[in-house]
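Example (one chain per record):
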Amino acid sequence: MNVTENASSLGGDLAELRHALHREPEVGLQLPGTQARVLDALKGLPLEITTGESLTSVIGVLRGGRPGPAVLLRADMDALQIEEKTGVPYRSRTSDAMHACGHDLHTAMLVGAAQMLAQARDELPGSVVFMFQPGEEACDGAGYMIAEGVLDAAGHRPVAAYALHVMSAGWSHGTFTTRPGPMLAASDSLTVRVRGAGGHGSAPHLARDPVLAACEMALALQTYLSRSVDPLEPAVLTVGSFHAGVRRNVIPESASFDATVRTFSQELRDKVASGTVRVCEGIAAAHGLDVDAVYSQEYPVTVNDATEAAFAGQTVAELFGEGAFEPMARPVTGAEDFSRVIAEVPGAMVFLGAAPPGEDYTATPNNHSQYATFDDGVLSAGAALYAGLAMRRLAAEQKATTMPGGAE
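Predicted structure:
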């Protein structure tokens, strides 16, 4: 089967599905409308379908015409709590939700791959698991799906797992990229609540001001990273939420802030976890205040298997030409719960440049922006790569087991 030609013929249908998903975005672990659209798109295909218990996931298992191992393909389906400002004709109809990270494209691509692979079912020496996942955006949907058995859906663990992620900036339209080893950072949270004693803004000496101490903590945490972490080892701490008080002349009783922390090793993760809490507790003690500083480890580092990353790059080159693949020079400080999947089985994540063609992809709005736009023109390529990875990986496994000295 020529997956690139077949995917191209599906382009219009995939764009229609993507637009429908984009117009009705859903956030979190419960995506009933999105789930219904995916189930409808898969209707009639020879898949063993199961849906989630604690989340609205969809798992489809395609049994090939010949026995063999399984390959898992994953697409995330959830949107972000962002008000869209792109102005595209199919923009979100929900005021506080938007597919600003391209998950609507991932979902449509994986549907297209399922349709193509179903047509080639008799040729497949093994099974393909289609993992349609809610709750990637800080809800750990992958963790829930793993707990509910997605990795054993075919009856045995996959020999490989792959995921695609479109990027609205950073890579040119239609360019694929990945790398061996760490590709995306671990993502953790630091939640801090400082408690003091309120009072009149004109007499701070009669109160215990939590605002000043919380501000000092937010600044000191940056100093802590710059003076405690090897400058050649990446670490990022960003305070994204800060709350205190209701009036300018009232010292509040408490102040709170939340930070995201990104690292690329478990050793540094543990060090930053204890160090950031120690900084906050020390500053609180110096001010005579109480503090609750809680560090929570969330998504682990996304570590691509070197062999699977190389296989993905080779597959891109064979399907689309050498110029379609660009090795990723360094990791990205974003995070992904697909990291949980490839911590269990060998696999790789691949990025796909989806900025509108002709625009300067170094300056277009990035993923998670209210203005982020992703071009429909990459849908066919993404679907083709999903299908191509599954077919070629199963074929490679079969070849390996039938060679002299192999399993058969």
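Caption: The chain has a mean pLDDT of 96.
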